[in-house]
Amino acid sequence: MSSETNNTANEIPESKTAKMLKYFFFAVLIALVGLNVFILPHHPHFGPEKYPGFWALFGCGIAIALAKVAKGAAHTFLGKDEDFYTKKENTGITS
Amino acid sequence: MNGFWHPSLFFFTCGLLVWLLPGRIGRWLPPIAAALAIASVFTMPAGEFAKLQYLNLNLFMGRVDSLSLVFANVFAVQALIGFIYALHVEDRWQLMAACMYITGAFGCVFAGDYATLFIFWEMMSVASTFLIWLRRMPASTNAGIRYFLFHILGGLFLLAGLLLRYKATQSFAFLPVTPAEAHFYDYLILIGFCVNAAVIPLHAWLPDAYPEATVAGAVFMSAFTTKTAVYVLARAFAGFEILAIMGTLMTLFGVFYATIENNARRILSYHIVSQVGYMVAGIGVGTSMTINGACAHAYAHILYKGLLFMGAGTLLYAAGTAKLSELGGLYKRLPLVFFGYMVGAVSISGFPLFNGFISKTMTIAGTAEAHHTWLAVGMEIAAVGTFLSVGIKLPYFAFFGTPDKQQPLNRIPVNMYVAMGIASFLCFLIGIQPHLLYKLLPFEVDYTPYTAWHVLQSMLLLCFTGLGFYIMRNKLKPEAKLNLDFDYVYRAVGKLVVIIAKWPIAAFDNFWSEFYAKAGLAGMLLSARISAWFDKAAIDGVVDGLAITVRNIGRSATVVQSGKLQDYISAAMLIGAVVFAAVWFVTS
Questions:
Q1: Which ipTM score applies to this complex?
Q2: Averaged over B365-383, what is the pLDDT?
Q3: Which residues in chain A have their CB less than 8 angstroms from residue B499's CB?
Q4: Which residue in A92, B291, B414, B417 is deepest, having the highest Cβ count within 10 Å?
Q5: Which structural domain, as residue segments, surrounds residue A63?
Q6: How many domains would you assign to chain A?
Q7: pLDDT digit string (tens) for B290-344?
Q8: In angstroms, what separates the C-alpha of A87 from chain B's closest C-alpha?
Q9: How many CA atoms lie within 13 A of B288 on its CB side?
Q10: CA of B304, closest CA in chain A: separation in Å?
Q11: Would A54 be classed as within a structural domain?
C-alpha cells in the first residue's frame, strides 16, 4: 500500500489530454511503420534497411538496451555518492 | 567593411574597454564587438593577410579560405547570441574573460602557422579557465584548476610537437598532413588537438568543468574550445583512420553517460563529447562528404548546443539548481524556456525541419558511403541515445515528470529570452533552408537531406526511441549520484605526483632551512663580531657615518637574504629575464 502511495506521489496522474496524446503517439508510430512498407531506400546503406520496420525496431531496441545497460552500470560500479571526491580528499594525503 | 579586419581585434579591444570603462557602459560593448565581427566575417575576401615578423618568427594571422570562414561565421554569430544572453551580467571580469576567450578562438581559426596558433590556443585556455573560476564557488575553483592543468598538458603536447616539427622541417607552416607521411611530432600535435576536442579518454576535463562554469560562461565554452579543435583537426589531420574510430566511440561514450547523469549541464556536457564525436569521425573518414558533414555539424552544433546550455543555464539561474532530481513540473511556470530548450533538443536529435537533421544525416550517410558501415551503425546508435537522454529524459524530468516542486524562481531577464529566441530561429531557419549552410562548406555539396526516405528513416528512429523511453521511463528516473569517469584515473595520478614531488622537494627545503640556520647565520654572526671588533678598535669615533651606512645596507640585505629557497629561485629567474632582455636588445 505504501509503495503505491509513493508511486502516485511521484507521477502526475494521467489526465484526459495526456491519454489522448498517448493514443495519438501510438497512431503516429503505426502510421510511420505503414509508410515504411511503401517507402524504402533505393540504395540501402545497411543490409536490413530494405525490410520495413527495421529502423523502428532499431530505435526502440537500442533505447531499451541503452537504458538497461547504462543504468545497470550506474547501479553496480559507476554510481557513487555525490560527495565521493570531496570525502576522499578529506581523508587523503593532506591529513 | 572592405578587406580583412581580424575579428580578434574587436574582441581584444572590447575586453580592454570592458575592463577600463564603468560597468554600466562596458557591458553594452561586447554585443557591438560581436556585430562588428559578423560584419567583418560576412564581407571578408578569401586570401592571405596579416603576415608579420616578430622575434625572428614569421607570424601569419590571416589565412582566409572556405574552411576557416565557415567556422569564423558561426563563431561570430554565436558570440553575438552569447553576449546578448550575458547582457544582464554585472561582473565585468566575466565579460572580459569571454572577450579574451573569443579573441583566442578567432586567432586560432585564422592562424596560418603553428606559432600563431599556439599563442591564441593558450590564450583560450587561460581565458576560459576564468569563466569557470568566476562562478566563485569552491567546486568551481577546484574544477577550474583541474581544467587548467589538463589544458596545460594538452598545450605542452602541442608545443613539443610543433618545436620538434620545426627542428625537422625548419617551418611552422600549419598545413595538412597525410597519414602516410605523419611523423612522431605530428602525432604529438594531434594529441594536443585531441585534448581540446575532448577525444576519449582525454575528455574528462569537459564534463568535470563545464557544469561548474558561470551560467553565461558555459554558453561560450560550449561553442568555442571543442569546435576550434575540430577546425584544426579538419585543417591538418583529415583522413586519419584513428580519428574515425575514436570519434565514433565518443558519440557512444557521451550518450552512455548522458543517460545516467543527473545534472542538466553535465548531461549537456557529455553530449558535447558525443556530438563532437560525429565531427571527429567525419574528419577521420576524410571524404569530401564527411568533412563537409563535420563542418556543417560543427556549425549546427554551436547553435543548438548554445541554445541548450542557455536553457539549462536559465533553469539554474531561475531555480538555483540544474539537478534533475531537484527540478520538475516547470513547463507551466517557464513555458518560454521550455520552448527554447525543446527547439535545441529536437535540433540535436536530428528531427527534420531542424538544423541537426541536415548535418548529422550528412555525416552518417557519408561514413556509410565510404564503406565504414560499422562506424555508421555506431553513429545511429548514438543518435538514438541522444534523443533518449537530451531530447526526452532531460525535458521530461525538468519540465514534466514529477509534480512541480514549487521552489521560488528568480525573475529571468528579458535578454536571456531574446538570445534563446534568436538561436531557436536560426536552428529552424537552417533546418528548412539547408542551402544557407551548405553554400559555406569547404567542398561542393552533393547531398539532399529532404528525400522521403531520409525523413521517414529519421522519424522512425526517433519516434520509436520515444516508445523505448515510454517503456523504460521509470527505470530512467534521475538519481542524485556521481558517476565515475576517466577523471578518477587522472585524479589518482595527480595525487601520486603530489606525493612523489612532495617528499624530495620538501626534504630538500627542510635541509636548506636547517643548513642556513646553522651555517649561514653562524657565519654572519662571526663576521658581525669581527667587524664590531674592527669598528671598535680602529674606526670607532672616526667615521660614525660609515657605520650607519653599513647598518642600513645590512638591513636591506636581510630582506634579500630571507633564507627561503623559493625567494632565491624567483630572484634568479628575474635576473635571468633581465639578462635575456639585455642580450636580445643588444643583439637584435
A1: 0.84
A2: 94
A3: 93
A4: B291
A5: 2-90
A6: 1
A7: 999 999 999 999 999 999 999 999 999 998 888 888 887 788 889 999 999 999 9
A8: 12
A9: 8
A10: 22
A11: yes
